[in-house]
Amino acid sequence: MSGLEIERKFLVKKGDAYKGAAFSCSHIQQGYIPAEGATVRIRIRDEKGYLTIKSHSTNGGLSRYEFEKEISLDEATHLMALCRGGVVDKHRWLVKSGSHTFEVDEFHGANAGLVVAEVELGSEDESFEKPDFIGPEVTGDVHFRNSHLLSDPFCNWRQLVPEAYQGPDQ
After folding, report:
1. 147 and 127 in contact (C-beta within 8 Å)?
2. Which of 32, 50, 65, 165 is catalytic?
3. What stretches in the chain show pLDDT beneath 70?
4. How many other C-beta atoms can be found within 10 angstroms of the C-beta atom of residue 146?
5. Where does the CYTH domain lie (predicted)?
6. Alpha-carbon torsion 10, 130, 127, 55, what sign?
7. Are 55 and 65 in contact (CB under 8 A)?
8. Which residues pair with 38 in a beta bridge?
9. Where are the domains of the chain?
10. Percent of the chain, pLDDT > 90?
11. pLDDT of residue 3
């Protein structure tokens, strides 16, 4: 897949409502290879590997170019060794809402207690139906970028998030 990625990101209310609404769940581990001018991500999702390259956003994190290619699990495992700063560990829950699918990420390790949801859109002004568990929008807030969570994990700034949107520590 490649092309323009348009997505909005939100905090998720405390509790398991998103889990009950989900039609799918997968385990994701991802790391980042240092690069100038782009984000290079290696991801292992269940038993599949992916290489993703994303440009930097010019409009506050709402849209950017994305290239993603499935690679072998062996290739992904070897490329993970080139990643710097550790690995983001999370479970992703897929929740249908209207004609959209929300990807709800429940983070683990130093990011435990953080749960965010993203929805991909066809245009920047496309309307969508929010599930009840969706909270305030955090699109463009650097704290909530997966690549940032490696260098400055949620445990360091948890107090900046309203208590109603802090899941339990693990």
Report:
1. no
2. 32
3. 1-2, 169-170
4. 19
5. 3-152
6. positive
7. yes
8. 55
9. 2-164
10. 85
11. 80
